[in-house]
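Recap for those who missed Tuesday's class. We walked through two folding examples back to back. For each one, the amino acid string is listed first and its predicted structure tokens come directly after. Nothing is annotated here on purpose, so try labeling regions yourself before you check the end of the notes.
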Amino acid sequence: ENFFGLLKSEFFYLQEFESVEEFIRELDKYIDYYNNERIKVGLNGLSPVQFKYQLHSIT
């Protein structure tokens, strides 16, 4: 549920889309941002990519 709440507040409510194609393109960008760049409290303030690299550097 957290993802969808953030999706609505950070993406959907802040933009207007000219077409369905534009919506899909921008949604893909947001999902990529969410999965790779957005800082997560549960990951000690790191993005998923930063957290992954930190784990690999420890092992």
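Example two. Treat it independently of the first, because the proteins are unrelated.
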Amino acid sequence: MNTLRQIIGNNIRNKRKILNIKQDELALLAEIDRSYMGRIERGEVNLTVDKLFQISLILKCEAAELLPNHEQLT
């Protein structure tokens, strides 16, 4: 079972790819280092609520869409 961080990271990556946004572009818009964005997407770091909300705005979605759904948790 994936951790919450991994699920959120995967959800961010999937949404980013759907929108054809490169990881370095998202990092630049979110004002974080590209390597840190990679660590977020791999679930290696804890993401603050502020940064999650900022990323959701860039990805044009609700922050809740990036959080795990029931199926992802079971």
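Answers for example two:
The mean pLDDT is 95.
Residues 2 and 65 are 17 Å apart (CA to CA).
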